[in-house]
Amino acid sequence: MPAVSENGAGADFGVRLKDATAATVLTVLLCVPIILFHADADIDGVLQPIPRPWAVAIFALLAFFGRLAVHNFSAGATREAKPASRLWSVVRAAGAKYLPIVGLAALFLYPFVILMALGSGGSLKWVDTYGIQILIYVMLGWGLNIVVGLAGLLDLGYAAFYAVGAYSYALLATTFGLSFWVCLPLAGMLAALWGVMLGFPVLRLRGDYLAIVTLAFGEIIRTILVNWVSFTHGSAGIASIPKITFFGLRFADQPGGFDAFFHLDYSPLHGKMFLYYVILCLALITNVVSMRLRRLPIGRAWEALREDEIACRSLGVNTTNTKLTAFALGAFFGGLAGSFFAVRQGFISPESFTFSESATILAIVVLGGMGSQIGVAFAAVFLIGGFEMLRELDFLRAIMANGTGVFLICLVVAAFGIIRSRGLAVQVAIVAVGAVFALRAFHLLPDGIVDKFAMPEFDPAQYRGLLFGLAMVVMMVVRPRGFIATRAPSVFLKERKTVSGALVKEGHG
Amino acid sequence: MRWRTDPLLVVEHLTMRFGGLVAVNDLTFQAGRGDITALIGPNGAGKTTVFNCVTGFYKPTEGRLALARVGAVSAADVEALTRSSNKHAITPTGELYLLERMPGNEIGWRARVARTFQNIRLFQGMTALENLMVAHHNTLMLASGFTVLGLFGAPSYRAAEAQAVERAKYWLDKIGLIDRADDSAGELPYGAQRRLEIARAMCTDPALLCLDEPAAGLNPRESMELNALLHSIRDDHKTSILLIEHDMSVVMQISDHVVVLDYGTKIADGTPDEVRNDPKVVAAYLGVADEEELASAEAEIGA
């Protein structure tokens, strides 16, 4: 046997050598027109081509040895799955045990920690956009998770219930002057009513058909909001929605306001912090209710419905009521979140409840792992937090503006290609790109070329759709079942074994 | 002869048409209380269609399906209920249900007819125990005050749930799956899945258990165990069984009463011994020797 393998290795080396030589030849051919000549001004100010064969030689050698290295790298790249270490399993068990408590404490302390770290002015953004904004989506994700993750009913129009909740509060508050705390349950119930109204016609639909009808429902609600001007003020939206109050105390710089009452210096942060705790509590209520429901017959019926509707019926489960309660409850929480959204913004318009809103919420649920509460929360932080982060990336804007960014992207693509690709042509192209980058890095490339790639208008936030799509594609390749791909059983005799996601049905109605 | 003296299920003139296709044609038979009744016939004879009518998945085109869940019910009571627009009646002697008037989930919950499926329909992503817990849905739903009491952890609900878990444990033990209670149903071997489906149906506390080919795909040992399980269900749990089966050895060993279907029509009805020797049954299963015999056989069947 050793003789054979040696022989094989020898032949293999010959093949590699040939391949590396071919790559070198190609590199030389590519490099001659690109980097052989360097233009420089002579004494008269006339550009003269100055040959620099050493540069070509460097890249030829780089290509040759790089190619050989790639072969060695890919040959030794047969990775073995390492058994999970004991320490890691202990850490995991401890994490699972203490994560809820530590997480809760962290969430409740977050505004104060931020306040202490950044002071009153700097922490506003962190409480508002990174706190409240993300928590709204966590709550929406948990609400939709009841419909999609547990009951398996694919809903593409969830923003409709969000809109119903928001408009319920806005209209009740501006027309009848009702307080937020009265409107909140009303908004939830109105949204639940609309959930049932959507539920009835789609009871018989499953999968794609259900998805299409829910999509249409979402658009119907939005179109009504746009066109029923006398009721909703149309696209102009509803402005000056009353702000939230703390037991009747307004968060305003005035006598009798919250700050004056507690003898504090006025700060807009206090109102934001209160909003933060309100949405935190609402989101936690959503979570606790859906976790409890999972262990009740209704929750088991939802999951059974997702698994097999026909078997459900044979066991005497009323599938009509089961589906309607899922729609109603999901819509209820969507309505609560909507009414919170209205009180936080102070202004709402149909613009805020477009299909992309539904798609984002659904993406959070899918990304998190359908049916997994903690996964959905992480997905919301990742997606919404990520979107907001894009606005902060000033360094990215800077390097894109002077042209280096494009070359950096080239380098990343090259690195990825070297690791993953097999084709000769691809690798040669990659080496060429790498060569160009190296030239740039050593300031061997004329500035004129770099300037061609400068993007002074570049704004990372403009690319959120692209990045969002890329993130989803990568997720579907790497973890098609979402962050948390396992299901925890609702009841157990001896030990709670998680159920592999491969066995659990997805939300196909 | 219990199916004549004390019938649990009376099927009369059952006809099921799908467009031009007559799947079941004017079928009349009775299933006795405490009997194991087998419904047999060649492929495409309409057995599963009868099942789907009995369990409410199809609404029969014509016919009456009367189930006397508790106690004997007189023919006069059945007629009276048929004339009324009600689905069920409580007579002095028992409870009567007209299955053709009820939706599928009510047949399961009120009339207490449970079923299994030809291709196993377990909740694969749920554990074996959870599968059985879903079968307690209606009982637990009432105990949880339609979720409201349960949400606040009312003690009455907790007691009811503990009771349901106990019942589930009993059945898991009975089918030999108590050690795999916390494994997901999809991971169980095929024979275990079949048994679990029967246990799940039994957890609904049925008066009539309908089994669609329970022995399909089982090895001889599992088949023997299944026979014992079905006998225990009949004798210890007072549940009557209606089953579809292709395996004749199973049918002949365990059934008290056999109904033979061919092309949607009943061709024989009796004890296993009577049916075994019936020339029409032999003809339907094995084919007939020549044209003449075929003609006479068809004349007898009325085809």
Key features?
heterodimer, A: 509 residues, mainly alpha, two-stranded antiparallel sheet, two-stranded antiparallel ribbon, 70% helix, disordered N terminus, B: 303 residues, alpha/beta, Rossmann fold, 2 domains, 6-stranded mixed sheet, 5-stranded antiparallel sheet, 14 helices, 11 strands, 42% helix, globular
Note down, in words, how this protein is organized.
- The complex is a heterodimer of chains A (509) and B (303).
- Chain A has 19 helices and six strands.
- Chain A has helices spanning 2-35, 53-75, 86-150, 159-176, 180-199, 207-227, 229-232, 258-261, 268-294, 297-307, 309-314, 319-345, 355-368, 373-390, 394-401, 404-420, 424-441, 447-452, 464-478; strands at residues 37-41, 47-51, 245-246, 249-250, 486-487, 499-500.
- In chain A, the strands form three sheets. A two-stranded antiparallel ribbon of chain A has the order 1-2.
- In chain A, a hairpin with a 2-residue loop joins strand 3 and strand 4 (249-250).
- The model of chain A is unreliable at 1-10 and 76-81 (pLDDT under 50).
- With 303 residues, chain B is α/β, with parallel strands linked by helices.
- Chain B is built from 14 helices and eleven strands.
- In chain B, the strands form two sheets. In chain B, strands 7-8-9-3-10-11 form a six-stranded mixed sheet, with helices on both faces. A five-stranded antiparallel sheet of chain B has the order 2-1-4-6-5, with helices on both faces.
- In chain B, strand 10 and strand 11 (265-270) form a beta hairpin.
- The two termini of chain B are 28 Å apart.
- The chains are: A mainly alpha (509), B alpha/beta (303).
- At the A-B interface, helix 9, helix 10, helix 11 and strand 6 of A face helix 4, helix 5 and helix 6 of B.
